[in-house]
Amino acid sequence: MIDSTIVRAHSSAAGYKKDSGTSQALGRSKGGLTTKIHRVCEALGGTLKFTLTPGQHNDMTQASELVASTQRAFVIADKAYDSQKLIDQIVAQGCVAVIPPRKNRKTPREYDKHIYKERHLIETLFGKLKHFRRVFARFDKTKDAYAAFIAIASTIIWLR
Fold first, then answer.
1. What CATH number is given to the structural domain containing 98?
2. Of 6, 23, 37, 156, which has the maximum CB count within 10 A?
């Protein structure tokens, strides 16, 4: 399963010096500073991979990279991931795409609605992850420090 969520960043997360042009995954919008967590989880809800981007980035920007190592599986995602390029990549890897088509798609596709119901596991995983204060209100200035705590929190969730 693949999905993403937006996390508000605390004002203390801003102000990191840009020394080598590296992005700290902070996006600025009307609502303030945000970071988007893109994540892939397995059938039981355990995290396989995740990546961080600024909050204004589209979900599709990280999708092909996150599912690149998936082989012979069902890839479950929401309508935001309905792209023919991504679906072709998933099929080429020997997987089955369980992604509902968007309303404006010219050629509607079929998908397994019973398997799609299992997508609630990744939503539940995001809910559990946001119970950690350091995750739901990003205080860390650097992307690496924030990603490290997300990895620790994901491990704690998996061990429960």
1. 3.30.420
2. 37
